[in-house]
């Protein structure tokens, strides 16, 4: 390696620190354990909020100057770039290691070459490092990010090895990450699932193995070491010692490592029941008559089942009768009132006065013999129907009231809002009925199509003679009509005379 450092800056600012760090050119990442220390220090400078032309903290400055003086020792470093391939019968394997610490994560790639005579050579190909994000995260997630980085590193190297086919092996010292990678991505949350799916595109689950932390060379790149220690570091340059053994030995040793605590949360399957299910059923239908008919058959089914259990023969069949339809309507009304006016229904059932804050206090409601909330008033002795004396109370925002208004609009042959309100109040008192009726009327497709505004032809401009001041009858128009038959006398024998009408109209004043 050739290290060409600039002269030591007089003042170590944030800008000078970044410029000095960038002079070390290492595209393959062979010096990753040394360069990662500079990245970590620069992240600490960034976290401290120092401006570009401000001095870096003293502790970082002292560490960097000591580290900078040791970089010159890397000029003694020589790396063998021949992987031992090209010999007949030689087998090349790619082994990638991933590891993470609280401050950085890294991936290292090694080539394991087996010669014809059984000799095994392990050499470093490339490595990649990244600092941990500023946002705090858990160590297993950083280990997963390291595995993701390892997959990307392998993908880049394989793009340049188009004519070589070699087996792939991936290693990590995190059992939680290993469990994530050896399972389907659908089991995990989005953050984990996305990275596991991306890793599986290059490194399938069967490629992953476990390695102890002290034998993981990526640990050097994730924590950083001094330049003097890197010169003679066998773990970094030639990988762990077990790679020089036979394949069956290190694969068996990796399979023995197992853990039962993988950090996998058990899935809880629960059946969620909607307490307002019958309201969603009402809103599911667009016709009140259809909804009423469905409720009739549901109640009939319940009665027939009860009759079968008690060995009764009075089962109902055929078309619904009037009593069944009335029972279905009462059920729908009572359910709606209990949902929206539960407090008022309970108070009126106890025959107590409503509080003044209630929206129904002016209606003087009461509960009839069927348990339905109705409007009170002073029309008890009126010679009209009972539903008109005491209409049924419904809220304006309920699905049942909307269906009833739609049904009235259809039965009145798409009448206007006033007729609809008059028909509605024969039996129902809907709170805020006018706005509901107008909403239904204006949203009716047939009414909108038939009552649309007809386009009018725009009139042309008036001539100049019509808008210019002048003396009367200076400019006039002539209209001639006829002939008309006139009689100058009355009685038998009067003769008719043909006549004509000629009119002169002033174009300025309109005089005739």
UniProtKB/TrEMBL annotation:
**Source species, domain of life:** Eukaryota
- Please state what the protein is called: Integrase zinc-binding domain-containing protein
List each copy of the Integrase zinc-binding domain by range.
Answer: 399-451
A Pfam match is: Peptidase_A17
- By its UniProt entry, which InterPro entries does this protein fall under? Integrase_H2C2, Retrotrans_Pao
